Each structure stands twice: as C-alpha cells, then as structure tokens.
Amino acid sequence: KGERVVVVEDVVTTGGSTREVIDLVKEEGGVVVGAGSLVDRHSGELDFGVPFSSLLKLVIATYSPGDCPLCREGLPIVKPGSRK
C-alpha cells in the first residue's frame, strides 16, 4: 500500500491497457507517478493523469473506409495490436 509505481508497456496503441493497469494499481493502494512505453503508436496525445514518455513515437496513417488505399484495392485489412 502506498507504493510509488511507474507503469511501463512495450507498445501503446490506444492506451487502454495502460489505463487498466493504472486503475488496478490505484485499487490496490499504489500511487502511479508515471507511465511509459518503448513504442508509442497512438495518434495524438495520451492523458493518463501522470507524466507519459516513450522511447519511440511512430506516426501511423489512418484512413476512413472511403479513403483507405487498401480498401480501394480490395486488399484485406489487418487490425494491429494484441487485443481481438
């Protein structure tokens, strides 16, 4: 209880997993003082309520279905990330 914790992920895409871990740490009485990742591939800014830093920021293009070059070519779309 009261332990100061920094939550670190390998890859942050939506930030959902990081938020879940932060919530779990708080539920157990820990104090989250920061968050980090090896790779940040989220487009935009992430707000975890604590300072966030990553070693590498990847800017990945996103498209609406009508503008997607793969969709226009009839190629299958593969969802990145580890969640299904």
Describe the structure concisely.
With about 80 residues, the chain is an alpha/beta fold. Helix content is about 20%, strand content about 30%.
Distance between the termini: 33 Å
Helix content: 10-25%
- Report the C-alpha radius of gyration, rounded: 16 Å
Largest sheet: 3 strands, parallel
Arithmetic mean pLDDT: 89
Oligomer: single chain
Number of strands: 3
Major β-sheet strand ordering: 1-2-3
Cα shape: elongated
Structural class call reads alpha/beta
Provide the descriptors you would attach to this structure in a database record:
alpha/beta, 3-stranded parallel sheet, 2 helices, 19% helix
Question: What features would you describe in this structure?
Answer:
This protein is an alpha/beta fold and 84 residues long. It is 19% helix and 30% strand. The protein is built from two helices and three strands; from the N terminus they run βαββα. The protein has helices at 16-27, 69-72, and strands at 4-12, 31-40, 52-57. It has a three-stranded parallel beta sheet with strand order 1-2-3, with helices on one face. The longest helix is centred in the first third of the chain and has 12 residues, at 16-27.
SSE topology:
Elements: E1 4-12, H1 16-27, E2 31-40, E3 52-57, H2 69-72
Parallel strand pairs: 1-2, 2-3
